[in-house]
Amino acid sequence: MTPGQILTIVKDVAIIAGLIFVILWIRNDGKNVVKLQDLQAVQQQIASNAAQEAAWQSQRQEAEAQRVQDTQTITAAIGAHRDPLIVRVPASANTVPGVAPKTASICPASGGDDAGSRVDLRPAVAAFELKYETVLADCRSALSQWP
Question: For a Cys-Cys bond, which of 105, 120, 125, 142 suits 84, CB 3.0-4.6 Å?
Fold first, then answer.
């Protein structure tokens, strides 16, 4: 065989190998297409996810409604406290021993009236209760929303 015939045979074999490669590539390319079963499985998963999301949304709405109800109950209960919480501050913490009070003075310890030494703690206690009870209601709501 001459070198020209060898080159022609090599060229023909390369062309045939290229054609076989193209035919196999076209044939196997269809195998990468999504199968109908896969598509149905994806649709079922999407439906399941939608149902779970709807359940979570329902839980969030119920938790928010419960939080609003708890907050209203707390506010009403705290608002119902009308009795003052009075603390008496000592009239004088730095009394000098041995000094007798004037005979005409009224001593607060003996039943006299000393309006300046009273402190009503009800507003501060009510604000404290409202603040922390509202935070606890928010915490309960957040825990109720947890999936």
Answer: 120
